[in-house]
Design brief:
By secondary structure, the chain is mainly alpha-helical. The protein folds into 2 domains: about 1-160, Orthogonal Bundle (Tetracycline Repressor, domain 2), CATH 1.10.357; about 160-293. About 70% of the residues lie in helices and about 0% in strands. It is globular, with a radius of gyration of 20 Å. The termini are far apart. About 35% of the residues are buried. The model has no long low-confidence stretch (mean pLDDT about 90).
């Protein structure tokens, strides 16, 4: 019988931080005062945690032979043989059934978004992860589906500026992830590399990172100054949160180029105290500004 600790590790709970994107709509639509809406968003986020864990299990099942030859991944439960493939399949099915049930409690739209998320990720694992640029856009699509689950999925009209900003953040994280992986390859770190990295050059990724980082700052800044935003939140002061966004982005790029980190955004957030400070500072200031009106 598989160790419960190994099964828990198979779920990759540290990756659940990515599901924070589900709460974006609740925060910026001035809707957190509505208990029913808060509950539906929480349910949607929980459903995404379960469905994403199922996707990670599918990825590990599909890549377990390759992972055994990778110095960083060979210790994963399936690659190391500490969890059997049969047990993993059963756990995957249970997770997805539970996630579908939770999604239906939120809305049928959330269920549809989860199904689309699964289809995209299965296609990514089987084939599309080797298609240059499209691989990063599929990663970004996963983040966008989270935002849509927490907005359209529960009846919150999403801000167009925030959707665009969310897309730029997702693309930025995707390109920095590939750049960090390319650093690891160039530095001769052990383990097999992704096939798609052979189609990426450092200069190309650096340009994409600069473009998306610039777009994140611009789209978020324009959102804070939008007449619709000011009317919704009754404040023009959200512009003062922009420096936190800029510092976080610049620090992430600094860490990428000086320490070759960034291949796992969910870990990088907690690894660098400067990035964590910028996120917490932005969140605290934003909540304070929005709660004043």
């Amino acid at each position: 019988m598989s160790n419960l600790g190994e099964l828990w590790r198979l779920l990759r709970p540290r990756e659940w931080v990515k599901n924070g994107f589900v709460f974006v709509g609740l925060l910026f639509a001035n809707a957190w005062h509505q208990p029913q809406l808060r509950l539906r968003v929480l349910i949607a986020a929980a459903a995404f945690c379960l469905v994403a864990s199922g996707v990670y299990i599918f990825n590990d099942l599909f890549d377990r032979e390759q992972d055994r030859n990778d110095a960083r991944k060979k210790s994963r439960p399936l690659a190391a043989g500490r969890v059997s493939a049969g047990t993993a399949v059963i756990l995957l099915i249970v997770l997805w059934i539970l996630s579908f049930g939770l999604a239906l409690l939120a809305s049928r739209t959330v269920l549809g978004i989860l199904l689309l998320y699964i289809v995209l990720n299965v296609a990514y694992s089987v084939r599309l992860k080797d298609v240059v640029l499209l691989d990063v856009f599929i990663i970004a699509a996963g983040f966008m589906l989270r935002i849509l689950a927490g907005t359209v999925g529960v009846g919150i009209p999403p801000s167009q500026w925030l959707l665009l900003c969310g897309l730029m953040i997702a693309l930025f994280l995707g390109f920095t992830k590939r750049r960090a992986e390319l650093y690891a390859t160039v530095n001769g770190e052990p383990g097999s590399q992704r096939k798609v990295l052979g189609h990426y050059q450092p200069v190309l990724l650096d340009k994409m990172i600069v473009i998306t980082a610039t777009c994140v700052i611009l789209t978020y800044s324009l959102y804070t100054m939008s007449p619709v935003t000011i009317q919704t939140h009754h404040t023009e002061a959200l512009i003062y949160t922009v420096p936190f966004v800029m510092y976080g982005i610049f620090r992430y790029i600094y860490s990428l180029h000086t320490r070759a980190t960034g291949s796992d955004p969910s870990q990088e957030v907690f690894r660098d105290p400067h990035i964590l400070f910028s996120i917490l500072g932005w969140l605290v200031l934003t909540l304070w500004l929005l709660s004043r009106h």
